[in-house]
Each structure stands twice: as C-alpha cells, then as structure tokens.
C-alpha cells in the first residue's frame, strides 16, 4: 500500500513539474512575441490619442508579462511627456486628443501632464479634450482645461464642488483590543502616529491639512480662470452655489465648449486634420507612439552627453528590494538600490548631470541617511537636481537635501522634517483576548526594550526620546547645510510640518516650482549641454517579470532547503531572526515618514 501511495505521489509530482515547465515556456515565448513589437508606422494627418484613466504611474517596467497579466498601465508619466514632446516636432501629428475616462492621479502628476499639454498647444498643435459618458471630475477638468476645446457628452456628470480629504483614526480600535500604542515624536506637527493615539485631528495637523487643501484649490482655480477667461472670484462663487453643477450649466458658464458624443468629436477632429467625412480618423495611441524614435519625429538633441533621471519612489527601506513579488505590490525604495543607481550615474562618462525624481513619503531614518550620502557624493562631481512628484516628504525630503537644487510642483506634498517612533503594548490584548501570558529573563534592564508585550517605563521612554531627538537634530543639520540656513531657522519651519510645494518655496525648503521637464532643463543647462532637448537615461533599470520570478524562485528554493536541513530549534531561531530583521533591523524603530498619505478629492 505504501508503495502504491509513493508511486502515485511521484507521478502526480512529475506531472505537476512538467505542467509548470510547459507553462513557463509558453509564457516565455509569449513575452518574446510581445517584446518584439516594432515601432508603429505613423501616417501623415494622424491624431495622437491620449487615454487618461485611473492613476498615471511614475514608471512602468515595459514588461509584456506584467502588462498582460499584472494589470500594469500601458504607459507612464515619462512616456506621456516624451510623446507630447515628440508630437510638437512631428509633422505627421496634426492634433492631439485627450480622452478622459476617470483620471485619479495625484495633483502634482496632473500638473505635470497639464504643463506638457500646454506646451504642445502653444507649439501650434491643436488639442481637443473629451470625456464622453464618463463625465468630468475636477482632476480630469484640470488637465482638460489646457486644451483648445473641452467637450463632454450630454447628460454626463460634471463635478465642480470643491476639495476634501478624509483621514482615518484607530484609537478606538486599539481600546477595544486592549492594546496601547506608545508614540514618541520630535516635532509638534509630526503626526504620523496620530491616527493610532487620537480619534480626530489635532489642531497642528488640521492646520497643515487645511493648508494643503488651500494650495490645491488655489492652483485649480487659477488654472481654470486663466484657461477659460473667468475671474477666480466668479469660479469660487459657482462652486459654492451649485454643488451639482450640470454639464449643460457648465457650457452656459463657459467652462465647457459643448456637449458632444464621441462620433461628433471625431467629426470635429476630421475637419481639423483636413480628412474627408467618409474617411476614418487616422489615430495613433500614446502607448504605441512612445516607441517612435525621436529622430523619426523630427526631434534632435543638443550637447555631447546625457542627463540621467534616477527614480526614488516608494516607502524607504534599508537594503535592496530584489525580493519584491513578480506582479508588484506596495512600492518600496531600497537604500542600496538608489545608491547603486546614483553610482552608475556618477561613474558614467557620458552622463553630465543627474535629476533625482523623488516620489516618497519617507520611511527608515537610517536608510534616508544612506540615500542622502549617495546624493551628496554624486552632487560633488556632477550637477544634481531633485524633482519632486506627488509626495517627497520626511525621508523623501531628507535624501533630496543632498542635491544642488530642489524643484517641486506647486501641489507636491513635501517637508515633514521630523522623526517619530511607535511601539504597541499588546500585553493586555494577549492576556484578556487570547489567554496568553508572558514571563521573561534578561541580562540587562533594557534587553526587552522593543517587546510588544510590555509598557515602556519612564526611563525607557526617555531613552527612546533622546535617540529620536538625536536623529531629528541630524535631520535639521542636513537641511540647514543644504539650504544655507541656521538650525534654528530650519527648526522653525520643520517640527514635522507638511508643506505644499508652493508654500515650501516660500519657507525656503524648495528652490523653485516646476515640473520634471523643468528639472531636466535645469540639469542640462548646469552641465553646459545647450538649450535642449537632451538625451536622457532612466535609472535604475526596471526588472522584468522573468527576472523577478527567477529571484523569487531562488529565494523559495533556499527556504525549502533550509527547512529540510535545519533542526526544529534552528528553524525556530531562524524564523525569530527574520521577524526581528523585518520589524527592527530592516525598517528601523525610528522613522522619518510622512504623517499621512494625503488624498485630496
């Protein structure tokens, strides 16, 4: 009987292995077929169509596997910007059509897109924007207002009722669980742990959230007023008096140019490009046009060299993020990965300047310090300009302080120069809810300092506060040295306070407001590469699905081998070490992280 069961298990295992091999090779050749796509042939009289739906990522991997099965968008922000730039010099592109289908990107990203659309329109290329039956939200309308003409479909919604952000608080949850968060922070505005110890906004937190909302509202109203020839006061009054502004009313108020169905927008575009009414509209989508070479689009570069764009995106962690899942997940920014990318830029002779594109809410204080060091080393040899995206705060601002200049979008969330530590005392939760109790033996009074099964003593809290304050003072000194200010001056605008890019410039934390394209222009001019445009290279190189899959497979194989060869005691100790590394070693107990992730709708 045992022989038959063993034989059956072997047969099933062999079949499963063969199935996995076949599956792998099918996917492999599928990827090769997708990646072998040639650049599209662009016909004269073409319309570049730009679908704007959902979020617009800073970067995609250009990996066919992840696009087909991982839900990755067909293009990223840089692809969109470079496509619009090429369209300005491509005689074959006679118009651009923005097709809005529920865009939800961050406000700084939308500013990037809007400025690229404006430059295209100002170059003489007609730009149409429409939203069909999807309607138009404030975010979509903000981008669409840069076009020559803006349309939506009859009976479609038109959102124009102001902005709000809603934050969650979990103090009541911890009370029900008999767990007590223990928060220690440097800076009265550093409210990263506030959701765990309060049920509502503190006054300092309310103040900074209100300032962020006001910046977005001011930028939105100013952009619409300029685009539509209305006063800001009139636009404010319209938002206050009619919370459910109809599309028909929007046309009457001059916010839209008409109510048109998709086929009617196509008819308008045909007349613009000079096509006959019976001809199909010749279009090329941005996800295809991004593969068209700059030379074939009539674009030339100035200078004998390139500008490297190094992406610093995600939650800051120590080490590398090579073990990230093949289909992605929460974006992480590893200190080793960023340092390696900057080392490549610093040691490449053809790289004359570097732009560090920061889109990070921060994270590990130790990793932020390591990244700051990598930026300063690069800036000592080549011009380094930081370009801030939607969020470049706390640890994201820390690493940016090592650059020569900082450029932020007006609505970028930045600053948050502060430090916090958060521990949870779950002793009563384990005892009251689960019936688990703990006892301990230790060699020193503070050996169990980070234990989640005890409350901090006054002495322990003082020790942690001292460590956090030391990190905060280092943070202040880094910023003071970079900005040419005294530590006291930086402290007056720090305290963990979050600033918009516009307000951060007034506070002396940012040199100027502008887009990624503006930062690249600054870098190229600082390197003496002429007026531009410049050749660019993106770093670090994104890993493909196959690379991540092979790395994950190797990791799982090592784990399986360790489980098979280690004894029970060795395995238990190894698991405890991994947990400790994740909680304390990898992330660090002390964090320089944004107080909250602002979502302004």
Topology (SSEs and partners):
Layout: H1 2-35, E1 46-54, H2 64-69, H3 77-89, E2 93-103, H4 107-122, E3 127-130, H5 138-144, E4 149-152, H6 171-176, E5 180-186, H7 194-197, H8 203-228, H9 232-241, H10 247-252, E6 258-259, H11 262-273, E7 283-285, H12 286-289, E8 306-313, E9 315-317, E10 332-334, H13 335-347, E11 351-360, E12 362-364, H14 365-379, E13 384-393, H15 395-400, E14 405-408, E15 413-415, E16 419-425, H16 427-434, H17 458-483, H18 487-493, E17 498-500, H19 501-506, E18 512-513, H20 516-526, E19 535-539, H21 545-565, H22 568-586, E20 590-593
Parallel strand pairs: 1-2, 1-7, 2-3, 3-4, 4-6, 8-11, 8-19, 9-10, 11-13, 13-14, 13-15, 14-18
Antiparallel strand pairs: 5-16, 12-20, 15-17, 16-20
Helix pairs in contact: 3-4, 4-5, 13-14, 17-18
Keywords, separated by commas or semicolons:
22 helices, 2-enoyl-CoA Hydratase, Chain A, domain 1, globular, 601 residues, alpha/beta
């Amino acid at each position: 009987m045992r022989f038959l069961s063993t034989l059956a298990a072997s047969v099933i295992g062999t079949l499963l292995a063969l199935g996995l091999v076949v599956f792998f090779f099918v996917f492999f050749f599928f990827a090769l077929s997708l990646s072998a796509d040639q650049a599209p042939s662009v016909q004269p009289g073409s319309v570049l169509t730009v679908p704007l739906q959902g979020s617009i990522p800073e970067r995609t991997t250009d990996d066919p596997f992840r696009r087909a099965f991982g839900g990755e968008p067909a293009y990223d922000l840089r692809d969109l910007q470079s496509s619009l730039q090429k369209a300005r010099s491509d005689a074959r592109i006679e118009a651009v059509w923005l097709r809005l289908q529920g865009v939800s990107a961050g406000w700084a990203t939308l500013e990037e897109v809007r400025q690229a659309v404006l430059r295209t329109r100002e170059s003489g290329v007609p730009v149409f924007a429409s939203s069909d039956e999807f309607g138009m939200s404030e975010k979509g309308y903000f981008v669409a207002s840069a076009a020559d003409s803006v349309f939506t479909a009859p009976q479609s919604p038109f959102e124009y009722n102001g902005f709000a952000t809603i934050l969650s608080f979990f103090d009541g949850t911890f009370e029900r669980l008999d767990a007590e968060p223990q928060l220690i922070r440097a800076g009265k505005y550093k409210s990263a742990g506030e959701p765990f110890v309060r049920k509502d906004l503190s006054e300092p937190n309310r103040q900074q959230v209100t300032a962020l909302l006001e910046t977005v509202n001011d930028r939105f109203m100013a952009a619409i007023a300029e685009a539509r020839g209305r006063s800001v006061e009139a636009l404010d009054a319209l938002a206050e008096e009619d919370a459910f502004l109809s599309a028909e009313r929007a046309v009457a108020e001059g916010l839209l140019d008409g109510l048109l169905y998709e086929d009617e927008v196509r008819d308008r575009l045909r007349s613009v490009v000079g096509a006959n009414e019976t001809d199909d509209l010749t279009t090329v989508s941005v996800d295809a046009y991004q593969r068209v070479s700059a030379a074939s689009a009539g674009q030339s570069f100035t200078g004998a060299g390139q500008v490297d764009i190094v992406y610093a995106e995600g939650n800051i962690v120590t080490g590398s993020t090579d073990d990230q899942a093949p289909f992605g997940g929460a974006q992480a920014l590893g200190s080793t990965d960023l340092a390696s990318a900057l080392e490549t830029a610093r040691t490449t002779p053809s790289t004359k300047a570097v732009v560090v594109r920061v889109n990070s809410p921060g994270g590990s204080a130790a990793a932020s310090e390591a990244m700051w060091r990598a930026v300063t080393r690069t800036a000592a040899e080549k011009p380094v300009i930081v370009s801030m995206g939607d969020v470049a705060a706390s640890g994201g601002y820390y690493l940016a302080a090592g650059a020569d200049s900082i450029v932020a979008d007006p609505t970028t969330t930045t600053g948050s120069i502060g430090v916090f530590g958060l521990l949870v005392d779950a002793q009563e939760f384990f005892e009251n809810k689960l019936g688990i109790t703990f006892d301990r033996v230790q060699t020193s009074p503070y050996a169990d300092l980070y234990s989640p099964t005890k409350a901090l003593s006054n002495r322990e809290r003082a020790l942690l506060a001292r460590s956090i304050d030391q990190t905060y003072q280092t943070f202040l000194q880094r910023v003071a040295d970079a900005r040419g200010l005294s530590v006291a001056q930086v402290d007056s605008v720090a305290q963990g306070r979050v600033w918009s890019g516009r307000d951060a410039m007034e506070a002396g934390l940012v040199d100027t407001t502008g887009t990624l394209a503006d930062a690249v222009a600054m870098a190229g001019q600082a390197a003496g590469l002429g007026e531009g445009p410049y050749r660019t290279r993106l770093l670090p190189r994104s890993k493909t699905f196959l690379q991540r899959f092979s790395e994950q497979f190797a990791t799982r194989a090592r784990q399986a081998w360790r489980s098979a060869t280690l004894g029970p005691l060795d395995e238990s100790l190894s698991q405890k070490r991994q947990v400790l590394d994740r909680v304390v070693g990898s992330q660090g107990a002390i964090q320089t992280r944004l107080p909250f992730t602002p979502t302004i709708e």
